[in-house]
Amino acid sequence: xxxxxxxxxxxxxxxxxxxxxxxxxxxxxxxxxxxxxxxxxxxxxxxxxxxxxxxxxxxxxxxxxxxxxxxxxxxxxxxxxxxxxxxxxxxxxxxxxxxxxxxxxxxxxxxxxxxxxxxxxxxxxxxxxxxxxxxxxxxxxxxxxxxxxxxxxxxxxxxxxxxxxxxxxxxxxxxxxxxxxxxxxxxxxxxxxxxxxxxxxxxxxxxxxxxxxxxxxxxxxxxxxxxxxxxxxxxxxxxxxxxxxxxxxxxxxxxxxxxxxxxxxxxxxxxxxxxxxxxxxxxxxxxxxxxxxxxxxxxxxxxxxxxxxxxxxxxxxxxxxxxxxxxxxxxxxxxxxxxxxxxxxxxxxxxxxxxxxxxxxxxxxxxxxxxxxxxxxxxxxxxxxxxxxxxxxxxxxxxxxxxxxxxxxxxxxxxxxxxxxxxxxxxxxxxxxxxxxxxxxxxxxxxxxxxxxxxxxxxxxxxxxxxxxxxxxxxxxxxxxxxxxxxxxxxxxxxxxxxxxxxxxxxxxxxxxxxxxxxxxxxxxx
Length: 526
Ligand code: FAD
Ligand code: SIN
Known about the structure:
Blueprint (H helix, E strand, L loop, with lengths): L1 E9 L3 H10 L5 E4 L16 E2 L8 H11 L6 H20 L14 E2 L9 E2 L5 H14 L4 E4 L2 E7 L19 E6 L4 E12 L20 H8 L4 E2 L4 E8 L13 H4 L3 E3 L7 H4 L8 H15 L4 E4 L5 H7 L1 H8 L10 E10 L2 E3 L11 E3 L4 E2 L11 H20 L24 H17 L6 H24 L4 H22 L22
Parallel strand pairs: 1-2, 1-9, 2-6, 9-16, 15-17
Antiparallel strand pairs: 3-5, 4-5, 7-8, 8-9, 10-15, 11-14, 12-13, 13-14
This protein binds flavin-adenine dinucleotide (FAD) and succinic acid.
The site of flavin-adenine dinucleotide (FAD) has 43 residues, from α1, α4, β7 and α11.
């Protein structure tokens, strides 16, 4: 089957949904996602969305905090642009129906998180993401120009390669004509032809065995763009969130928001000793890379599987009111956070690098935009400042919408694209080939390419990943496509990019910390 549209949007998190709403009055939109429209990383966001609203905060401070967190690798002009444009886009979210908590005077309640010098995080209790996701989904469902298709798994971006032409990463004339998409209900691969393709497939947390990300986060977009010869960058900067709930067996790991530390919660060892001031004068509210490494170090020193986050000194009524979901979740495990410390461990959380894009979200492949977590815009550098990703997603959804709408009339749909060729393939005989390799990839990445790395660990990881890569490619060549096989293949691809980029960085910076290149300054203890 062939489908045609003006805008093909792949992914229905904050980035894809906002983009669809911005362009739907101008052209027809097909919005696809691989599970259901309401499932995404966005839905699980807790802390909130960072932007300057009231004094004493100002743009300069937010810019400065973002640059400091990014450890010298942010693009200053992009940081200035995103921070300046975020307030207007948050206003747009509010007009679309998103509700943020307000005080009795009608002012927004602003939370604080690691690395922020002011309170600037707008939030809805401790389930900001769900509030955003639901509001945008409602609006999308009511727009007659948006066709949303669930259980549609994008397999590959279509380029000149599919017309038998040579496509190279060094060329600047590669064009995107749409995508091949697996309909998970019929098992058929259909051809979606579009004037503009927008890839908003989010991150890749499932490369690691402990992650805050839901199952959908398997780096599909990165792998697709890489295979299509787009440029990918900064993949070594994988952000581990310092505090996910220690509850062995639970997947994804339940997040304990950083806003709780902004509210006054303190990290302690299991015997009740504060430790963060040993590592950074900002204590429990230092930027994430520093806190995650400190926890990792303390767990190694003590041999414990977790550290504690203590809220017992905080006002119990206010605590329950601001963090009702965390309170309930912990209570279901017999942890009363008003009295008992919460056991926490770091978990893979966010991908700072991704598809290289310009200031409008355009990738290096013509007519292909990448927005949201999948993109590498220059905002985050070597470490993302907390709650900056939702702001980045809405700013870039807006910019990509304006830019693509301007170019739409000059573009015609390419009708020469062949349909997906699936001849001589069969169903894999044993799923264990896929599931075992999936687990092995997670173990390799967690043990060798985690919070603290070394040259030897990276080399070992690469050797092991190469074996799994070969086995998986052989299976892929002869198998009828399945979501599991595609996701495994994509994860291997993304793991390879992280490893190669980590090997090329001969220093410790931000989220990439190698014991072979110890960093000077107040984190040298690591
Ligand atoms: P997502 O929201 O992840 O959406 C991706 C979409 O792509 C989904 O619809 C998925 O189905 C679809 N998709 C993926 N692959 C395919 C495919 N092959 N074919 C078709 N569809 C596909 N950031 C903040 O700024 N503040 C916070 O408080 C915050 N809290 C967080 C808490 C948690 C637990 C997590 C996991 C993340 C948090 N983040 C937070 C990060 C932030 O939520 C994400 O970076 C952001 O929501 C990503 O949005 P997105 O639209 O790019 O992708
Ligand atoms: C959190 O609430 O701690 C997550 C915030 C983020 O990832 O930006």
